[in-house]
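TA notes, week 10

Several of you asked for a full example with nothing omitted. So below is the full record: structure tokens for the whole chain, then the designed sequence directly under it. When grading your own attempts, check the secondary structure regions first.
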């Protein structure tokens, strides 16, 4: 179990596996985008010549079949002057790098003393050059930084093409460097991230530490009042807010409260409230497809293993 965050504030209890699966969903969309872009990239331009097509009576469809292309370009001018296939790839690559950057930002945060959720191998986290107590997550920082580089390549290509008349212009030779650099950058970032995660040590957070900060099950308390006791949610939200305020004033957690304290705040509380707001029960109660309940997380892990074995 670990805290889930919204607005970088502790929100509700989740599991590490559930959190990592969210990143897997993002990467799967990236894979889908690249595969979809390939349909428009994998088109044979041969036969377009300079811009008007060839004088030689070639069979373009037969040539495409011999070369392994599923389709041929339909307009010779477009075939010569188009660079959408490069721009679309770099666009998909930029979204992929954005996802890697978000993941690495979390790794950077989680490896800090303030969070302490993960420890990176020394192969990916170097000692500070002046402060020997520090272990800096440099590989994650570099991947995060490379995201801006790929963004820059995409913007360069869009700017290059934005005012070119049809058909070919010599400006277009500037498409090579941003394309090749994007391919190289994405490949090395994926490889480094893969190795970094394989050697990372995720730390188990003691339940007492989770319970002691952030009132992670406050939403469960509001749901208890609304779902179990029929209190309108707006009123349940207000009662829960008063309960949290009481805890802060008295240096307590929700789990520390006694039934008489709860009933002073609201007559709607009964002893069954404690089972409802326990951290362990909170995680498992989200028992819907895509939820954080352990059986649902195992279900998703099995699903992903099947999918990855097929790919």
């Amino acid at each position: 179990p670990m805290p889930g965050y919204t607005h970088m504030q502790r929100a509700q209890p989740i599991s590490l596996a559930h959190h990592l699966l969210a990143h897997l969903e993002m990467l799967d969309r990236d894979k889908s985008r690249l595969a979809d872009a390939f349909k428009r990239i994998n088109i044979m331009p041969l036969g377009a010549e300079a811009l008007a097509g060839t004088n030689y009576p070639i069979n373009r469809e037969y040539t495409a079949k011999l070369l392994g292309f599923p389709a041929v370009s339909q307009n010779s001018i477009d075939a010569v002057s188009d660079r959408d296939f490069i721009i679309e790839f770099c666009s998909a690559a930029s979204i992929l790098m954005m996802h890697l950057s978000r993941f690495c930002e979390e790794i950077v945060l989680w490896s800090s003393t303030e969070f302490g959720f993960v420890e990176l191998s020394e192969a990916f986290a170097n000692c500070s050059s002046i402060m020997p107590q520090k272990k800096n997550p440099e590989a994650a920082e570099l991947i995060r930084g490379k995201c801006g580089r790929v963004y820059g390549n995409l913007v360069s290509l869009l700017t290059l093409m934005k005012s070119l008349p049809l058909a070919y212009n010599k400006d277009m030779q500037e498409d090579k460097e941003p394309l090749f650099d994007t391919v190289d950058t994405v490949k090395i970032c994926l490889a480094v991230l893969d190795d970094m995660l394989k050697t990372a040590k995720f730390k188990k957070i003691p339940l007492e530490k989770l319970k002691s900060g952030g009132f992670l099950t406050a939403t469960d308390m509001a749901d208890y009042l609304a779902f179990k006791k029929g209190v309108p949610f707006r009123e349940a939200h207000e009662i829960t807010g008063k309960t949290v305020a009481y805890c802060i004033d008295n240096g307590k957690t929700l789990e520390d409260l006694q039934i008489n304290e709860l009933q002073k705040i609201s007559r709607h509380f009964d002893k069954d409230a404690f089972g409802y707001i326990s951290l362990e029960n909170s995680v498992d109660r989200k028992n819907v497809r895509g939820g954080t309940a352990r059986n649902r997380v195992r279900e998703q892990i099995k699903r992903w293993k099947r999918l990855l074995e097929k790919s």
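The two ends are 30 Å apart (CA to CA). Use that as a sanity check on your answer.
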